[in-house]
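request received
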Amino acid sequence: MALKMADYKTDVHNDWCPGCGDFGIVNAIQMALAEMGLQRDKTAIFSGIGCSGKTSHYINTYGVHTLHGRVLTFAQGAKIANPEMTVVAVGGDGDGLGIGAGHFVAAGRRNLNMTYIIFDNGVYGLTKGQASPTLKLGEQTKSLPSPNTNYNVNPIGLAVASGFTFVARGYSYDVRHLKDLIIQAVNHKGLSFLDVLQPCPTYNDLNTRDWYAGTDLMDEAQKRHSRIYKLEDTGYDPVVHYNEESEVNEKLTQSLIKSLEWGNKIPIGVFYKNEIITPYTHRLRDKIPNYLENPPAKQNISKNGVSNTDISQILDSLEV
Amino acid sequence: MSSTDFTWLIGGPQGSGVESGANIFSRVCAEMGYQVFGKREFYSNIKGEHSYFAVRVSDKKIHSNVNDVTLMASFDAETIFRHYKEVISGGGIIYDADLEDTTTDKVHTLDPPFRERLHKELESKNKPFSIAGVLEIAKENGVKLFPVSFKSILETLAEETENPRLKGLIRMYNVIGVSLSLGLVKMPPDSLQKTIGTIFSKKKEIAKINQQAANYSYNYSTAKFEGFDYSLTGIEKEPGTLLVQGFQGTALGKMACGCRVQPYYPITPASDESVFLESNEILEVIDDRPGSTAVIQTEDEICAMGMTIGSALTGTRSATCTSGPGFALMTEMLGWAGINEVPVVITNYQRSGPSTGLPTRHGQDDLLFSVFAGHGDFPKIVYASGDVEESFYDTGNIFNYADVFQVPVIHLMDKFIASSVVTCKRFDPSKISINRGKLLDKVEGEYERFALTDDGVSPRSRLGLDNGIFWNTGDESDEKGHITEDPILRVKMMDKRMSRLDLILKEIPDVEKAVSFGVEDMTVITWGSSKGPVLDAIEMLKKEGISIGLVQVKLLHPFPADYVSSLLKDTKTIIDVEANHSGQLGKLFKQNVPRDIDYFILKYTGRAMTSTEIYDSLKKIVENKAEKREVLMHGA
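response:
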């Protein structure tokens, strides 16, 4: 029987603030899982720490709520051991781009076949609103004693530069579009990254839902009822179509340039997509020919309660 | 026939082939039936600093090095400056005659504190600050000197083989040193040729040149050198003897017991284990398709630990391997594994701390840190192996502990073991039993990962198992694994997890908790690699009619207080021997067994203990001349 969106929900009480952008993201994930018909026990949601960390408890698949900044490390370990699992990692921007920035970069270099979604709201919510890595220099959200003294991280740019092979941005109040992006991300052959703009109604009084809707603007954005526009509506082609330096460079460069757009025009959609780079699991298969058919989690390690691994050749070479 | 106890030392600048020279020597001796105990010392440096290898050779089982060097093979000046005093009367020094005029100020790698001590020594004996000066002292000490020009050996060899390239091949000084030494002790030359052939089996051309050099040097030695009283002509070989490097025990144990994922971050002295695993990543499996170990080099130790846990959640036996600084980074995740009851193994090849400490030197520094690692209370196991052979079987056991008790296990190894080369009995994988505990193969009906059970252990699903969905969180959780802050459930969950410590003490057999080598009025307690030198020291004292007992504690957390105190109930004097400053086992002992340690024998120079110095300290204790805290200092 086909699974419905409701099958991917748990009965755990959701304690996010009313109006939180996180609701849109968790809904989009559940819709995407249902639309793809992913088997619940072959899917795992890994999460970091913070408001977004609770996501894994609200989704009725395997759920692993890990540590601050470390979600990618756990998720990658599981994927390497059992590559048949569909693995989605989620976390906040402070989690992934502050304390976890090193893992973010290294994960890009590996390019495992999985998805990472960042809930990007510019603040540390659960600790009462300190500046997060995506908050712009000089901005002062309401609980900051003084304006932010750090330059912001550019999540899209960092992902592209780190080697993520699918890089996209969504908006948490455009749930259907976000759901489509998640489906593309999960189906991508390699590591996919989704930067999801997500207003924090409690602590980020700058990038609010109204702000994203452009209510403060006098120009055409107000006519569009949004600062946000979709890359796919502009004829933007994110895909690296063939393996030539000029093609790769062009697509990388255009995504970087697009990632710098902010203010009155904010692009969402797919910035970059490259399926020519081999995923990490295939690199392992190049070393270990039967890795994909007989990955670590599937291997039989004993017979009648005793080791069945034959190390006699190595022992022979050590014998004098 | 008199018994053999011979120590050969080779030294040289890092990168000059000291290690491969020692490997050749060790292998020849092992092939010829001897027991071998070799240990490498080196600086945190790639090229140029002094490294050396001391290989002890005996006709009996040995577990340590001794202070005395019987024969030293040197091809640089620094080795002579640093080690001339260790060579015994009647022993020998093979050295490069071209170095005689070299003065201490020409050897830039002699660090100031050592240089100062050396100058004082030479000054007091009225000798010049040169190789000639130290060799005069050696000679006065009864050491026999065997000068040879390494350069002219290469030149002659180049002429004889019509291969002018050989003239400049100073990389072969190590093979020349080994061959001169083996000629001097009359080791049958075939074994040398065979060993070089084996070691360079993949590089035929290099094997050939080395065999020529070995042959020439061996003959040079037997023709030109005389008056050396020691010989190693071979004894009957015990069948089924391995010559292993210290890190291979845990690596082979991991392969045998089914560890299939090992993420790691490079760190001395732990990386060798992971590299060895990766070099053998494809595994033969009896009656099945090949298996494999996914060895993943990560961006840091935090990722290594995270990946290990993530992998373990899929039901895969998973481990990481690190040293103290790396383990420090893993501790937040250790708590996560604890609260989520994830079986993982962390192999910690300890080194000298604190901080970077002496990064390439030995220390049993992390015992208390391991016992108390991680914030908050959670169950874990800390286990230590005493030597490479033990470490193979222990690795099998601790993966079972991890699975059965669903706890992280910290396996304490150390640099002394990691960089030793020893003979031991061939490992027997059929003795590696596999017990996955309550790991599930299928789930029927409602499943709760953290169900409260009578024995405090819940049936364990794994990511990907049909109907086995669970949740994990670093927060306190309910039976399903969802966050809870309920005070009553909190107490239930804490009690459930912590009850595991009693279960561990109940279920692990006594012989795996601690090993008694006999208990006497005076008994040593120790752990890890200090076992070897203590065993040999006790043997030396026994020959003098002095009996001292030894208890090696292997399960260090939870501490087997009942078993250890029952072993020691009749002993009057307890001596704690270990390689750290504070006597960490002693502290743990006193915390768990309400009894004081009478004497401490401690070493924290970064160099491994020798049996000689433990013998000396034990003797002082027996004669009532010892300090409460004896500190050992031997070793360059």
